Amino acid sequence: MGHLRGLLHPDRYHGHARRPPFFEGWYYKLVDATERARFAVIPGIFLSDDPDRHHAFVQVLDGTTGAASYHRYPAEAFEAARDRFAVRIGPNRFDAEGLSLDLDGEDRRVRAEVRLGPLAPWPVRPWSPGIMGPYALIPWMECNHGVVSLDHDLDGWMQVQDRAADSSTTRVELTGGRGYVEKDWGAAFPAGYVWMQSNHFAIPGTSLVAAIAIIPWVRAAFPGFLVGLWHEGQLHRFATYTGARTRALEFHDDRVSWTLGDRFRQLELHASRASAGLLLGPTREHMESRVGETMLATIDVRFTDRRRRLVLEGRGRNAGLEVHGDLDRLLALQT
């Protein structure tokens, strides 16, 4: 898919005509109705300058225990439709309607059949195609981001056999649970970034996704950020391209605190740091960057509108949180 043709469909595969280095991956978050089981399933492809490192993959993170597995496939096992979001990696299938897993690894066997819907996609407009806004129009961005669905129902099941431990098999019923889907594609992950997400608030249908990262720009860099708060059927956006600004950003051993806003609105985020599992992330050379992700975080949110009225004050549960890379440089770029 060409860059311009893909702008209005951020959920689709963008690598048909791309040269290495290139990666693309989708992130399915699955939380059961009891909120005791949490999983992240990440299918993707990695193309290196070294053809021997080309491969497709499916990562599975148990967000409750932190156990993660990386299932590697030949690049030729990856297939993606050109006219819709539909991906196949070996016997595993992924699209906007759901996913089907049959992963048989040395340490773990994972099977699943999960349906999603109805979805709540980030709005796409020709002048602002998705969460990237006008930055999506720039073809040389190091890393692009898309939100396939901010919140939706789950229907299905997942079965995990842990061969590395006692070889026990656990089946999780996901029907009645909540899900979220996003994606990334480009040359590499940012050198330093923070990402947080939750769609488990006291008010059903509320969802938050927020990220700030070092963005390379010509011969310099800047701290770019994207925030979406979906609440009572309305999407509240804060981003570098909307004129919003970071007012405070702090990293502590037990939490991340971030205050941002524009002339009229303010959003305060306080995310707890919890035990994490290790996922693999892309650099320009290989898929070996260790990225710690927890799905046990909480995010305290306080949002006031242009009249300084309280719109939302609450805590997001089962939150995903990644704090990775050169955080000192990310902080320095704020000044």
Report the strand count.
Answer: 24
Main structural class: mainly beta
Indicate how many domains the architecture comprises: 1
Proportion in helices: under 10%
Query: Biggest sheet, in brief?
Result: 12 strands, antiparallel
Describe this structure in words.
By secondary structure, this protein is mainly β. The chain has one domain (3-332). The protein contains 2 helices and 24 strands. The protein has helices at 3-6, 327-332; strands at residues 22-31, 38-47, 55-62, 68-73, 78-80, 86-89, 92-95, 98-104, 108-117, 124-125, 128-129, 143-162, 169-173, 178-186, 192-198, 207-217, 220-231, 234-239, 245-251, 255-261, 266-272, 277-281, 289-304, 310-325. The strands form 3 sheets. Strands 1, 2, 3, 4, 5, 6, 7, 8, 9, 12, 13 and 14 form a 12-stranded antiparallel beta sheet that branches. Strands 15, 16, 17, 18, 19, 20, 21, 22, 23 and 24 form a 10-stranded antiparallel beta sheet that branches. Strands 10-11 form a two-stranded antiparallel sheet. A hairpin with a 3-residue loop joins strand 8 and strand 9 (108-117). The radius of gyration is 19 Å and the shape is globular. The mean pLDDT is 94.
Task: Give structural attributes.
mainly beta, twelve-stranded antiparallel beta sheet, 24 strands, 3% helix
Quick recap:
By secondary structure, the chain is an all-beta fold.
